[in-house]
Q: What sequence folds into this?
């Protein structure tokens, strides 16, 4: 293998990781939300608000850490609105999620209007000494930015939480049947509030990644449907976290490839590549839905249903 | 002796409606205490408050003499109260072990929970595999999970909400043994039921509720079923006037032959080779324990679910097995399902629009797809007049009617069409005694005018009061119909438990 | 003091109609505060947003033209929502309508036939119906959740349009721009009153809304839709097939969205361009809710939402406020409407004690 080839591959892999990380973060959060039985279609809105707020703070204060924190909080704040509406006011989750996305994109556009055209220096990669010098895989495994590493830690934490802790068992139980969970005395609304907040924080962090790592600038509408793709990803993963990793990197690869498909003379239209994640998700959804036995095992049965306790 | 649990002037209101008002009772240690009442008398509401699922509007609970506030089921469990719900609180996607773990207070390792499940299920003869996912289990197995859940908590008070409604008599007998054993170990049991024999056999004390109020406390073993029933129902059980007996030479208006329908729901019951024939003027009563295929039978007879063959269902000589419900209505058949709200009627539609639901195929209430609301209002006025349907306002929404009034509407809507064949399920379920008498009389009158009626009911009293002939459905199989005067309650009871044949020695696996 | 919701014993009819009024009023007040936050006199801001666009006759025509697709899509969605079918992919169905209609128009770009315009409109209807049939069939045959499938199909439709105008349908004389040929005159919806915007499609939308009202309130079809939506078992008791209802409401909704899409390209853009899908399919969901799932209500709601687009453009030009304000306003409006609708079936109860068992 020539040196050029090695560089090309390394760059491709780094590019895929950068493309996949926001998907993975946002989808990890939404997976926990949906596992608790709530469908939040506001991912795109929470993501873009996270993107713009983190950029504004990082640009104004010069502190990237503060930027990341504010981005997470902004996503969580928007999800709190969603939670109050759907859990306390018992509104329809689909419509409320759309409202979050509509309002989020608008708010981000207004808030970021004076920052278009500016740039910052992005969050640097953490080069682990010596290890990152290994050819080909060194930079890919040991030269990533901290948030990309964190996305992996997060998914492992979520797997551990959902299947190894009692709290995770309770969360899955709430998503399976809120009425049964309520009858056993579990605070359904409180658990869902926390899951929704976690999902919002993750979406906020995903947005932060876009501005503070991926691009280092702010442009209106820059989430470019990534929130919707993350929603698709959760379904594609059939609500299993380890498949979120698989799907995020698959979707990331597709996203990376379409940038270069035309340049490299690949005879597939880029629009087809872009629509692949959605088409694959529909196929997966059909496959798991037609087999009711398997659908029952993994699909959160209360997904999107309003929980109304008879107090 | 202090009561284990004392209920002091408890009331519970839902909006303006009082489900319980000013109820006081004592549950003593080690006793089996029956809570009796008709459907809708307020039994479930009361026990839900005892278990902390609902919060009382007024009144208080005392536990071992100390006043307590039931803050929630977790607190109730901490006190030592266990509850087996009528509708199971299970999680389909989780395993048996996980389901049990969720009701245990402490954070036990899953392997320990599974071990405990195995132990308890062995000790009490309740076989369960802790690693199975619940969505793959039968109804009986699901109830076992609920019972094992409670037993694992070492309860001082066990609340059982209509536990035998899904069990065969044999299973029920086994359950009674377990309960008596628990009681002898000092555990109190609150046993909710409307089955009088069970209560008389099992319980030391009975508290009887009616319309949300406590009407009597007694020792059920010193009462007769009839006296208990009168306390439950309130008035002397009215007897209806029965028409002359049906003679064997009236023509057959409705029949099924070899009607076989697989259940739609994986937890449902398959119908196996159902045969029946009902003559003009005859009421065939179909008895059976809930969940033995009654819903499936109604759906197949009405045409909501199509049969295995065209000849499987015949109305007035026409084979309609493959015809839908509206084609059957056009042949003068009418249907009254068990569930009023959501099946027989749509809650948020007006009565006149609800009248359209079952009459659009047969009456001039719609022409070329356009609805004649004037005609419908007239139709509703007739139903209201003839069946004394009381509503808060003219043409009110169905949901605003009381259960009895909505049922009178659902019955009257079909009766007004003067059907030749009527299939009715649980005609007086949860209905007050007055409305029940009106409905039963209407059925008898319709039969005397020459209609053939199939009445599916779990209420044996009703079956015997109204029917000319009686058959029993058990595990999706229908017994041969016999004249009502030639069959005893005991024989019907045996058939309900899946026991057929002369001496009752041939027992189906239940 | 703690506040909690308590179910009303009967839905409040007053709140059903008061709720949109409250939601709109509060939205306007909040938008006023947003102007203050941006250093703009709120009265000037609100006047520019809500009044100025209505000052000229030409802008009234423009308002009607903008409301037309919103109303048309919303009327279709109302059938779905009343049947409790969550079609949220109207944006995709609208796009397919534009693609099919545009394709026919471009394919016969030298035609002068009177039949071309009806063919373009019909093609759009067919396109929308085909796209809507996909989630319907997936739901019927595989029980696939229609919320997810209809949503996923929307970006696919948008990408398909993008591919077509950059590929097979690109204008051969168009300097490589991502746009199709201009449609021939015979494929253009006529306009009235010497206006560029007032096209006869506006009447079509109004007509469809009136027809839908009759269908929903006076015909068996609407009755079947309502029964299927609120009580599926009762629908079966009435002999109404749930499969048939699913497919019918999806097709009605797809037809309306497709017609809106094809009328939009025929009357407004005159060619296919990648920016035809502007989110009308999502905004129409707000229109349907705001209009109380009633087609006539949707006409008024559609006018209001059309005004929100025009006001956004107006403040961008006059006050240099980004048109993103439109999105904020629409999102807020939907939020507030959903919140107020809670009060139709619930009321607030204030109690001194904390409810220990809150859930």
A:
């Amino acid at each position: 293998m020539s040196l050029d080839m090695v560089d090309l591959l390394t760059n491709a892999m780094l590019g895929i990781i950068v493309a996949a990380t926001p998907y993975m973060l946002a989808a990890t959060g939404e997976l926990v939300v949906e596992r608790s039985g709530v469908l939040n279609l506001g991912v795109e809105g929470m993501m873009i608000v996270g993107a713009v707020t983190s950029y504004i703070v990082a640009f104004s204060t010069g502190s990237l850490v503060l930027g990341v924190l504010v981005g997470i909080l902004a996503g969580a704040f928007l999800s709190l609105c969603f939670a109050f509406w759907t859990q306390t006011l018992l509104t329809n989750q689909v419509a409320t999620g759309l409202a979050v996305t509509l309002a989020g994109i608008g708010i981000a556009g207004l808030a970021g209007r004076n920052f278009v055209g500016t740039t910052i220096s992005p969050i640097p990669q953490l080069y682990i000494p010596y290890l990152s010098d290994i050819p080909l895989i060194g930079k890919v495994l040991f030269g990533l930015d901290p948030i990309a590493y964190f996305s992996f830690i997060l998914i492992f934490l979520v797997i551990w939480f959902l299947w190894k802790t009692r709290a995770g068992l309770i969360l899955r139980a709430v998503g399976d049947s809120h009425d049964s969970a309520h009858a056993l005395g579990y605070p359904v609304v409180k658990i869902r509030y926390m899951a929704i907040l976690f999902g919002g924080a993750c979406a906020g962090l995903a947005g932060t990644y876009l501005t503070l790592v991926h691009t280092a600038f702010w442009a209106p509408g820059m989430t470019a449907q990534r929130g919707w793709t993350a929603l698709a990803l959760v379904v594609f993963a059939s609500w299993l976290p380890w498949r979120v990793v698989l799907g995020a990197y698959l979707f990331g690869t597709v996203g990376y490839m379409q940038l270069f498909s035309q340049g490299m003379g690949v005879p597939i239209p880029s629009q087809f590549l872009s629509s692949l994640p959605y088409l694959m998700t529909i196929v997966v959804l059909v496959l798991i839905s037609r087999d009711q036995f398997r659908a029952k095992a993994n699909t959160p049965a209360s997904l999107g249903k309003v929980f109304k306790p008879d107090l | 002796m202090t009561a284990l649990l004392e209920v002091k002037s408890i009331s519970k209101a839902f909006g303006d409606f009082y489900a319980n008002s000013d109820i006081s009772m004592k549950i003593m240690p080690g006793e089996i205490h029956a809570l009796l009442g008709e459907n809708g008398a307020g039994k479930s509401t009361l026990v839900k408050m005892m278990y902390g699922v609902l919060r009382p509007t007024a009144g208080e609970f005392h536990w071992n003499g100390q006043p307590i506030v039931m803050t929630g089921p977790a607190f109730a469990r901490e006190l030592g109260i266990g509850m087996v719900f009528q509708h199971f609180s299970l999680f389909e996607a989780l395993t048996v072990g996980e389901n049990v773990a969720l009701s245990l207070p402490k954070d036990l390792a899953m392997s320990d929970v599974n071990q405990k499940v195995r132990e308890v299920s062995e000790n009490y003869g309740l076989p369960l595999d802790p690693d199975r996912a619940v969505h793959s289990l039968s109804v009986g197995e699901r109830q076992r999970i609920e019972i094992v859940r409670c037993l694992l908590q070492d309860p001082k008070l066990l609340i059982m909400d209509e536990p035998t409604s899904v069990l065969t008599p044999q299973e029920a007998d086994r359950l009674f043994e377990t309960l008596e054993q628990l009681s002898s170990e000092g555990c109190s049991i609150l046993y909710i039921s409307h089955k009088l024999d069970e209560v008389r056999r099992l319980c030391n004390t009975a508290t009887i509720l009616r319309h949300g109020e406590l009407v009597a406390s007694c020792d059920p073993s010193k009462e007769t079923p009839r006296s208990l029933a009168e306390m439950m129902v309130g008035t002397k059980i009215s007897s209806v006037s029965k028409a002359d007996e049906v003679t064997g030479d009236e023509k057959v208006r409705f029949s099924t032959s070899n009607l076989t329908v697989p259940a739609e729901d994986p937890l449902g019951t398959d119908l196996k080779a159902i045969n029946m024939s009902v003559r003009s003027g005859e009421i065939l009563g179909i008895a059976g324990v809930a969940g033995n295929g009654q819903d499936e039978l109604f759906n197949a007879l009405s045409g909501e679910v199509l049969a295995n063959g065209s000849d499987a269902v015949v109305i007035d000589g026409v084979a309609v097995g493959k015809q839908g419900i509206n084609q059957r209505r056009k042949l003068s058949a009418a249907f009254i399902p068990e569930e009023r709200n959501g099946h027989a009627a749509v809650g948020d539609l007006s009565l006149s629009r609800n009248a359209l639901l079952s009459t659009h195929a047969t009456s001039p209430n719609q022409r070329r797809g356009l609805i004649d609301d004037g005609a419908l209002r007239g139709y509703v006025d007739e139903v209201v007049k003839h069946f004394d349907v009381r509503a808060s306002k003219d043409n009110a929404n169905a949901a605003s009617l009381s259960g009895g009034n909505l049922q009178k509407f659902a019955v009257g809507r079909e009766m007004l069409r003067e059907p030749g064949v009527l299939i009715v399920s649980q005609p007086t379920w949860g209905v007050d005694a007055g409305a029940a008498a009106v409905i039963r009389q209407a059925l008898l009158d319709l039969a005397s005018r020459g209609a053939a009626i199939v009445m599916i009911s779990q209420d044996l009293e009703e079956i015997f009061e109204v029917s000319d002939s009686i058959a029993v459905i058990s595990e999706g199989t229908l017994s041969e119909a016999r004249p009502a005067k030639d069959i005893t309650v005991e024989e019907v009871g045996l058939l309900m438990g899946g026991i057929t044949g002369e001496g009752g020695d041939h027992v189906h696996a239940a | 003091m703690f506040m909690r919701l308590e179910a009303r014993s009967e839905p409040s009819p007053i709140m059903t109609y008061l709720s949109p009024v409250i939601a709109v009023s509060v939205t306007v007040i909040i938008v006023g505060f947003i102007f203050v936050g941006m250093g703009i006199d709120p009265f000037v801001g609100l006047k520019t947003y809500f009044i100025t666009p209505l000052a000229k006759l030409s802008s009234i025509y423009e308002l009607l033209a903008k409301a037309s697709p919103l109303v048309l899509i919303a009327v279709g969605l109302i059938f779905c929502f009343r049947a409790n079918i969550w079609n949220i992919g109207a944006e995709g169905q609208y796009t397919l309508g534009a693609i099919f209609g545009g394709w026919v128009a471009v394919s016969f770009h030298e035609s002068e036939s009177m039949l071309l315009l009806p063919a373009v409109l019909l093609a759009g209807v067919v396109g929308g119906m085909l796209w809507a049939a996909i989630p319907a069939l997936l739901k019927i045959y595989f029980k696939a959740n229609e919320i997810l499938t209809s949503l996923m199909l929307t970006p696919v439709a948008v990408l398909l349009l993008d591919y077509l105008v950059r590929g097979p349908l690109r204008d051969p004389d168009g300097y490589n721009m991502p746009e199709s040929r201009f449609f021939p005159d015979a494929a253009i919806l006529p306009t009235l009153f010497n206006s560029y915007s007032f096209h006869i499609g506006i009447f079509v939308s109004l007509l469809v809304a009136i027809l839908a009202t009759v269908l929903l309130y006076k015909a068996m079809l609407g009755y079947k839709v309502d029964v299927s939506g609120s009580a599926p078992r009762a629908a079966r008791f009435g002999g109404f097939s749930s499969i048939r209802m699913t497919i019918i409401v999806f097709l009605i909704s797809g037809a309306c969205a497709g017609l809106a899409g094809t009328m939009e390209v025929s009357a407004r853009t005159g060619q296919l361009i990648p920016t035809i899908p502007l989110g009308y399919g999502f905004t129409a969901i707000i229109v349907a809710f705001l209009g109380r799932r009633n087609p006539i209500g949707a006409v008024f709601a559609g006018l209001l939402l059309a005004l929100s687009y025009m006001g956004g453009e107006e403040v961008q030009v006059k006050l240099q406020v980004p048109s993103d304000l439109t999105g904020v306003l629409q999102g807020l409006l939907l939020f507030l409407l959903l919140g107020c609708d809670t009060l139709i079936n619930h009321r607030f109860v204030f109690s001194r004690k904390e409810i220990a068992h809150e859930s």
Remarks:
- Residues 3-298 of chain A form a domain with the ABC transporter involved in vitamin B12 uptake, BtuC fold (CATH 1.10.3470).
- DSSP finds 13 helices and no strands in chain A.
- Chain A has one domain: 3-298.
- Chain A touches chain C through 59 residues (CB under 8 Å).
